């Protein structure tokens, strides 16, 4: 399969979040491959499963669901992101909801008790950007400018 190159990303599908300028919107809303960092765990039923493009995007970049899970689980272990109150038991699978998420936000408060909510969100998005890079680096069919 030919390797894909990320370029010319439509600005309508980018947003600025703490510590990540030009972050992708979620995949289901038109985001680019970096948004896989915000996708749910494969193999689980989803409320909005009909909109989910995760498996399609994983196939496009040449990554299996199992490889995706392993990357997110290792990342969670490295950053102490496991939390049984989060969806799929890890902040690695948390979405990008700007308006807040009780599960994510309370998990961040437990992980970073010394930080303000803004500082915790800055750390969350910084690490999500790192996770996105790891996912792209481990893809089989993708060339990245990031």
List the helices and strands and how they pair.
Elements lengths: L3 E2 L8 E4 L2 E5 L29 H8 L3 H15 L22 H10 L5 H21 L4 E2 L3
Parallel strand pairs: 1-4
Antiparallel strand pairs: 2-3
Provide the structure class. Answer: mainly alpha
What is the string of SSEs from the N terminus onward? EEEHHHHE
| Number of structural units classed as domains | 1
Low-confidence segments: 1-5
Instruction: Estimate percent helicity.
Output: 25-40%
Tell the overall outline.
Answer: globular
Average of the residue pLDDT scores: 87
Q: Count the beta strands.
A: 4
Q: What is the number of helices? A: 4
- Which percent range describes the beta-strand content? 5-15%
The first-to-last residue Cα distance is 21 Å
Rg over CA atoms, rounded to whole Å, is 15 Å
Side by side, the strands of the main sheet go: 1-4
Describe the largest sheet: 2 strands, parallel
Give a verbal description of the structure.
The chain has 4 helices and 4 strands; from the N terminus they run E-E-E-H-H-H-H-E. With 146 residues, the protein is mainly α. The strands form 2 sheets. It has a two-stranded parallel sheet. It has one domain (4-139).
Any key phrases for this structure?
single chain; 146 residues; mainly alpha; two-stranded parallel sheet; two-stranded antiparallel sheet; 4 helices; 4 strands; globular; disordered N terminus
């Amino acid at each position: 399969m030919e390797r894909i190159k990320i370029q010319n990303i439509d600005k309508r599908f980018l947003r600025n979040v703490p510590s990540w300028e030009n972050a992708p919107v979620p995949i289901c809303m038109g985001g680019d491959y970096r948004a896989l960092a915000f996708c749910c765990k494969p193999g689980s039923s989803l409320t909005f499963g009909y909109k989910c493009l995760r498996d399609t995007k994983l196939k496009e970049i040449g990554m299996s669901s199992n490889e995706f899970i392993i990357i997110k689980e290792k990342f969670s272990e490295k950053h102490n992101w496991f939390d049984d109150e989060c969806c799929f038991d890890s902040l690695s699978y948390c979405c990008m909801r700007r308006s807040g998420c009780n599960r994510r936000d309370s998990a961040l408060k437990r992980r970073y008790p010394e930080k303000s909510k803004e500082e915790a969100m800055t750390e969350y998005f910084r690490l999500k950007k790192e996770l996105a890079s790891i996912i792209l680096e481990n893809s089989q069919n993708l060339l990245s400018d990031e």
